[in-house]
UniProtKB/TrEMBL annotation:
SUPFAM superfamilies: Formate/glycerate dehydrogenase catalytic domain-like, NAD(P)-binding Rossmann-fold domains. GO terms for cellular component: cytosol. Pfam families: 2-Hacid_dh, 2-Hacid_dh_C. It comes from the Bacteria. This is D-glycerate dehydrogenase. InterPro entries: D-isomer_2-hydroxyacid_DH, D-isomer_2_OHA_DH_cat_dom, D-isomer_DH_CS, D-isomer_DH_NAD-bd, NAD(P)-bd_dom_sf. The keyword NAD applies.
Length: 326
């Protein structure tokens, strides 16, 4: 019989889509035979077919892992490794029923996503997209003291809804810009986890105090459509909203109304309801800076995600407890 380490090296791993070469290298260092699913097979049925014989499969947020998926999963598959921090796209009960071990990549994306949150906050507040549109259109008539006036950061209140590791990193960055940071969570965090931010227990008081609201809470039944018409009304006139979590935290109709009537002055969005569909109104409404879900899109994060999953797959195969089991 092969030693556990030799068996490990031969472990059949299926990577279900192309990853950056640096991340593939991380997988292949430990699992030299890790296979990458060809592009023309990258559908749920293609994955299920190719997964036959694999012990672990690596999946991004592109696929909904629902009950039907887990029921159809070939017997060989013991580990579903989510190449993501979020797991709102996974039916956890169905995974449990199927007795598959589910792991993800929490914590390590915080710097990458927090950097992008700052880009969206600054980009929305300083009307960066309108500036790009103007200069690209050839309509720019030269410097003007009235052109594209935005808002400075110093002294503004940034309200973070959902103070996890991403929220903390944004908080630190925002304070370096002179902002006052408030946060709202189900409960107040221990001081060392507050990232220098002030807890506001009352939801309405929290929203009324936000010059800029950052949505950073995971999507759960409690946060689904958190930003609805009533809560939008509680935001001060001219507030800015940034979403780096999941599109489903926002009631799109109510939010678009608020953008059109200028109650919300600007928005920075990296995520959308029902991706990759995008409510087209977000692409035409002035003041919206839309990005295509690139919060974790840095090479550092992509490598760290691969390392986190490889470590945990190794642990599981060696009979140890994984660090990030869901
Ligand atoms: C995550 O990790 O949850 C990102 O949103 C996409 O991978």
């Amino acid at each position: 019989e092969a030693s556990p380490l030799v068996a490990l090296k031969r472990c059949p791993i299926l990577i279900t889509e192309e990853l950056p070469p640096e991340a593939i290298k991380v997988f292949r260092r430990v699992f030299p035979e890790a296979a990458i699913l060809p592009e023309n097979q990258q559908t749920v049925s293609g994955i299920l077919e190719a997964a036959d014989g694999a012990r672990a499969i690596i999946l991004t947020v592109k696929y909904r892992l629902d009950e039907a998926f887990f029921q159809a999963l070939p017997k060989s598959v013991e580990i579903i490794a989510l190449y993501s921090s979020g797991f709102d796209h996974v039916d956890l009960a169905a995974a449990r029923e199927r007795r598959v071990t589910l792991i993800n990549t929490p914590n390590i994306l915080a710097d990458s996503v927090a950097d992008l949150a700052m880009a969206l906050i600054l980009g929305a507040a300083r009307r960066v997209l309108e500036g790009v549109d103007l200069i690209r259109s050839g309509r720019w008539a030269g410097f003007s003291p009235t052109l594209l006036l935005g808002k400075e950061m110093r002294g503004r209140v940034l309200g973070i809804f959902g103070m996890g590791n991403i929220g903390r990193e944004v908080s630190t960055r925002a304070q370096a810009f002179g902002m006052n940071v408030a946060y709202r969570n189900r409960t107040q965090l221990p001081r060392e986890n507050e990232g220098g931010a002030r807890y506001v227990a009352d939801e309405r008081a929290f929203l009324e105090g936000c010059d800029i609201l950052l949505l950073a809470a995971p999507l759960t039944p409690e946060t689904h459509k958190f930003l609805n018409a009533e809560r939008i009304r509680w935001l001060p006139q001219g507030a800015i909203v940034v979403n780096i979590s999941r599109g489903e935290l926002i009631d799109d109709d109510a939010f678009l109304d608020a953008l059109l009537n200028r109650h919300v002055a600007a928005a920075g969005l990296d995520v959308y309801t029902n991706e990759p569909a995008v409510d087209q109104r977000y692409l035409t409404t002035p003041g919206v800076l839309p990005l295509p879900h690139i919060g974790s899109a840095t090479i550092e994060a992509r490598i760290a995600m691969a390392e986190t999953l490889v470590d945990d797959i190794e642990r599981i195969l060696l009979g140890e407890r994984p660090s990030n089991a869901l």
